[in-house]
Amino acid sequence: MLSKAKIRLIQSLQYKKFRKAHALFVVEGLKSIQEFIHAGWEIDTLYTTEIAFAKLNKIPQNIKLSEVSELEIRKISFLQNPQGMLALIRIPETQNMVYENLRGRYSLALDRIQDPGNMGTIIRTAEWFGIQNIICSEDCVDIYNPKVVQASMGSLARINISYKDLLPFFEKIELPIYGALLDGESIYHTQFATEGIVLMGNEGNGIHDSLMNKIDYGVTIPNFGSAESLNVAVATTVFCSEIARKKING
Amino acid sequence: MLSKAKIRLIQSLQYKKFRKAHALFVVEGLKSIQEFIHAGWEIDTLYTTEIAFAKLNKIPQNIKLSEVSELEIRKISFLQNPQGMLALIRIPETQNMVYENLRGRYSLALDRIQDPGNMGTIIRTAEWFGIQNIICSEDCVDIYNPKVVQASMGSLARINISYKDLLPFFEKIELPIYGALLDGESIYHTQFATEGIVLMGNEGNGIHDSLMNKIDYGVTIPNFGSAESLNVAVATTVFCSEIARKKING
Questions:
Q1: How distant is the Cα of A204 from the closest Cα of chain B, in angstroms?
Q2: Can you name the residues that pair with A43 across neighbouring β-strands?
Q3: Residue B59 sits in a domain of what CATH number?
Q4: Residues of chain B found within 8 Å of residue A132, distances taken between Cβ atoms
Q5: Got the DSSP string for B133-176?
Q6: Using CA atoms, how far apart are residues A124 and A154, in angstroms rounded to an integer?
Q7: Can you tell me whether residue B187 is helix, strand or coil?
């Protein structure tokens, strides 16, 4: 039986302000929740209906379980079709970024990505293509937004993501920066180094002016038709795919 | 001044049944509407606020304009942030597909794509990469769904899209069919012919069993990480990009 106060608390976690205040966020659905458990995240409480609980494989003994009714799960779920299981998970304290971890591989830098669906899809796609680190500008959408969590399909549990002021960050790292621009060299002709940062810009406005002179290589996805632009998660996909392909094909 | 009946009619167009009955669908926003006008679609009525009207460049004389208030546009808009302009556009009669148009190029076939955001993104991405034809299974989401229209960002105005029973269609066309599978050859090693069909499957279930033996080449996007799957619009992007790249790079 959920108290009214608890229901209000969970509902409030749709807003960043309350996620920050409570250091909690919501993950829904058996599969995603298991990925966070498996990756060692601290589960505050796991709310589950009796039916969903039966589908749950062995979970760590120390996880606090709370059985709820179908009606109750509807009250706390952010989904149109609640999945019978919802976890409150602790937001970890921000770790200092270990710059050495960016060496010898590619990472993504995201400038002011606003749409949570795009952010979640970028996280999921990055993981598929073996990218382990994403650096977000401080004004990107919050990665613990329920829609980001949903679209990332569990990949959020495994990718290192940090928020940074990108300008000093770019000044500090000594890695080539490849910026997604409209007037760069064709991505299909770009020689990607063995390590680097791919910088993607805001949905409507692209990369901020202040970052432009930090870009070592402007890279463009050639346009073969009349579409005016590509969705930013789609454009990120092309970068991830090309870099992964060149690792294989040389 | 909009009548209640008119408001009800427009609101009803969020449902396929009513779009079909009236042969009308809704496009919102100056930019998208202009793309449909420019591409020669039949505009039934253009509803516009005074402010939005001022931004409108010359439009064909024969378009029926209806000035509405900000309040009225809120009532008929499907968007959270209405853009001051909404057009009812006539759904064209289904044209017989000219099979010859599929020759010498790549087209997409979509099996049971359900999510309107995915469908719209696929249409937009396909156009960017020069794909002109999309064949949807009859149980794909309706392309005139407002969320598809929105996500396609105007590309819907220019791409040929038809709904077909895919099995007889595949039996009729004499083109190689490349199916997106989990256990095919790596896309980075696939030799794509100069023409063909790329077949993408449903978000959760992939390509239907009944279509499997029509696939000439099973093609896989290699997994470089631990993510379990890719979003279908993202996977389609990798196919479009690779085929376009090979056209350039050989």
A1: 12
A2: A89
A3: 3.30.1330.30
A4: 225
A5: EEEEETTSPPTTSHHHHHHHTTGGGTSEEEEE-HHHHHHH--S-
A6: 8
A7: coil
Q: A88 pairs with which residues across the strands? A: A26, A45
Q: What is the largest CA-CA distance in chain B?
A: 60
For residue A97, the model assigns a pLDDT of 78
* Confidence at residue B29, expressed as pLDDT on a 0 to 100 scale: 93
Count residue pairs from A and B with Cβ separation < 8 A.
Answer: 115
CATH number at residue B220: 3.40.1280.10
d(CA A7, CA A181): 45
ipTM of the modeled complex: 0.94
pLDDT in tens, A184-224: 999 999 999 999 999 999 999 999 999 999 999 999 999 99
The pLDDT value recorded for residue B56 is 79
Verify that B66 and B18 share a domain, yes or no.
Answer: yes
How many angstroms away from the CA of A1 is the closest CA of chain B?
33
- The reply to whether A241 touches chain B by the CB within 8 Å rule is yes
**What whole-number percentage of chain A has pLDDT above 70?**
100
Q: How many domains would you assign to chain A?
A: 2
Any A CB within 8 A of B250 CB: no
Asked if B130 reaches chain A (Cβ–Cβ under 8 Å), the answer is yes
| Contact status, residue B233 vs residue B240, Cβ threshold 8 Å | no
| pLDDT tier for residue A60 given thresholds of 50, 70 and 90 | confident
Over residues B12-46, the pLDDT tens digits come to 999 999 999 999 999 999 999 999 999 999 999 99
